[in-house]
Specification:
The chain is mostly beta strands. The protein is built from 3 helices and 20 strands. The strands form 4 sheets. It has an 8-stranded antiparallel beta sheet. Strands 4, 5, 12, 13, 17, 18 and 19 form a 7-stranded antiparallel beta sheet that branches. Strands 1-2-3 form a 3-stranded antiparallel beta sheet, with no helix packed on it. The longest helix has 13 residues.
Amino acid sequence: MSTATATTLRAGGRTVAHCVTRPALAADHSPRPYLHPVTTLAGRAVTEVLPEDHVHHLGVSVAVPDVGGHNFWGGRTFVRGRGPVELDNHGVQRHDGFKLCDPDGFVEELTWTAGGERLLAEHRTVAAVALTDTAWALDLTFSVANVSGRDLSIGSPATNGRPGAAYGGFFWRAPKEASAPGVFGPDADGEEAVHGARADWVALCGDGWTLVFAGATATTRRDPWFVRAAEYPGVGSSLAYGERLAVPAGGTFVRRVVTVVADGRLDRDGAAALVRRGVAS
């Protein structure tokens, strides 16, 4: 896979992430900028791209399966009454350029297009912040404006008739290991208890690493979490969990997710403490 543009992020004096801005991908992967590999401070990779189980999963990205009927997630589209269907409806998130690009973060401008139409304009801010000798935080904010000139709405397979499949928005694909990762939240344990919950944060623990995802604004915290562990390891914040998200012409929606990336296996108290530091940084 070749790329036209890439940049790196550093935290605590170490390279911890690579941003691929213009990936050369098939149209049905819904090409978009993504972060991979993302690593712990000790160098352990905690992202995966193009995995066999879901070849359109791309490390850390903002991916939405239904924007006015256009697929910005990749793969098949879930159609009510028909199920997953291969459609020629995939969009592209085009990297237009950096407003700022420093070793510890960048500000990126993007355009979401589909069918030759400019639908959304995005302003994305990404920063890497060292927290301790064994943990750092990835702070990602995306502000998306409807520039199509008409009202749009964002949906998910759940809002299109597939219960529990409310993926779409910020999404992190973690590496698949020999055993499924552990999952817990502030007051819940296990994938079934955390998936679909509205919680300040959710943690995913693998072999020698922990990721703690936190909604860093009140609006983001109202979005339920989409969590997968047994089938594959991935966590997202759902823009359209129970109903479609309306984005009127000229309207904007903003979300901010801070992810703690830690070596080792954190317990609940340790995860909560690092989240507080990451969100406040």
